[in-house]
Automatic annotation (TrEMBL):
CDD domains: GT4_AviGT4-like
Domain Glycosyltransferase subfamily 4-like N-terminal: 18-119
A Pfam family matched in the record: Glyco_transf_4
Domain of life of the organism encoding this protein: Bacteria
InterPro entries: Glyco_trans_1, Glyco_trans_4-like_N, Glycosyltransferase_grp1
Glycosyl transferase family domain segment(s): 171-309
Signal peptide annotation: none
Protein known as: Glycosyltransferase involved in cell wall biosynthesis
PANTHER family (UniProt xref): SULFOQUINOVOSYL TRANSFERASE SQD2
Length: 368
């Protein structure tokens, strides 16, 4: 198939450091190319891909200090994708709802994976205004606030099976990986580690929007002797951090749409201790790949019981449910279904005349 992958421009594909959506776009694109599909990736010029790269901006917008309005390059990208739409069998968007108005009447089949939280008041009427736009959720939980959307499937994220190294022996510290923000609750992770008497390694970025929160609520907590703040990490460093951890702490306080770090830990064989929010019960198997807890007291008790969890079971769960190959196969099935539906919607007259004939007979085309 001829497939267009349309990525956000905030990070490169794959991202240099933090950037979950762009990483998933990268893994999906590489799997599709490896399976023999003809793929074009719309992304920033500093992206690295086996597909044909259609660059929109010179570098990822987050790394470009001269960018004033990041929306404008995305609008430029939508226009370019629309003008090239006829070259593809399917267009796969990963850019939220930005393209909805532009592609309402597009004849090329397209599908949108929504990667973020959907419990946003203004989002409900927008999605309901485009009932024919095919949507993919990354968990069943994610789609609940907008259940009237045109959901065609749920596709869980996947990672390459050789990306993370399985380690059979547990480490001696707890790990926290992600962003330092109010909803990620690194403060909970610190309290859990201190109560359990175990070292905690924190690998996390601090966005500009969360800088005040970090300075006022978190910074002083990092001075505890059991706490080590590492900052942002790359893939190699993440592999070491997660693989050598005793357990991953995922003490979130928001409706997590997926939680990529949970499957990253599983790929290393590292169990997860997660608070029951959002998609956690879909991704985790309580008692098998870690423990799902309700509060800090339960989390501390889970640390004490983590030895009951088999690290090989965690790895096998990753391989069976969360590989990039499985993810790509799921999407190809969706692409083919949407392409087939498009063929079935073609007018019987067009089927008889053929598009070439219609183009030579403009009056017939108008009547049709």
């Amino acid at each position: 198939m001829k497939i267009a992958q349309v990525a956000p421009l905030y990070e490169s594909v794959p991202p240099k450091l933090y950037g979950g959506t762009e990483r998933i776009v990268h893994y999906l694109t590489e799997e599709l190319v490896g399976a023999g599909h003809d793929v074009m990736l719309f992304a920033s010029a500093d992206s690295e891909t086996s597909a044909v790269l259609e660059p929109i901006v010179p570098k990822a917008l987050r790394l470009d200090n001269d960018v004033v309005d990041p929306l404008l390059p995305h609008l430029l990208m939508m226009d370019r994708v629309r003008r090239m739409a006829g070259e593809f069998d399917i267009i796969h968007f990963h850019t939220g709802c930005l393209h909805f108005p532009v592609f309402r009447e597009c004849s090329t089949p397209h599908v949108t994976t929504l990667h973020g939280r959907l419990d946003i008041r203004e989002l409900v009427p927008l999605i309901e205004a485009f009932p024919d736009t095919p949507l993919v959720s990354i968990s069943d939980y994610q789609r609940r606030p907008v259940s009237l959307g045109n959901w065609v499937a749920t596709v869980y994220h996947g990672l390459p099976e050789d990306l993370y190294t399985f380690r059979a022996e547990p480490g001696t510290y707890l790990a926290f990986l992600g962003r330092i923000s109010p909803e990620k609750r690194v403060d909970r992770a610190i309290e859990i580690a201190i109560r359990a008497g175990m070292p905690l390694k924190i690998a996390a970025k601090v966005d500009k929007a969360d800088r005040e929160y970090f300075d006022q609520k978190i910074k002083h907590l990092l001075k505890h002797p059991l706490v080590e703040y590492i900052g942002e990490v790359n893939e190699r460093e993440k592999n070491e951090l997660l693989g050598n951890a005793y357990a991953l702490l995922f003490p979130i306080d928001w409706p997590e749409p997926f939680g990529l770090v949970m499957i990253e830990a599983m790929a290393c064989g590292t169990p997860v201790i997660a608070f029951r929010n959002g998609s956690v019960p879909e991704v985790m198997r309580h008692g098998a790949t870690g423990f799902i807890v309700e509060d800090i007291k339960q989390a501390v008790a889970a640390v004490e019981r983590i030895g009951e969890i088999s690290r090989i079971t965690c790895r096998k769960e990753f391989e069976s449910r969360f590989s990039a190959r499985r993810m790509a196969n799921d999407y190809v099935q969706i692409y083919r279904q949407l392409s087939e539906k498009r063929k079935q919607r073609v007018s019987p007259t067009l089927k008889v005349l053929g598009m070439e004939t219609v183009e030579r007979l403009p009056m017939v085309g108008k009547l049709i």
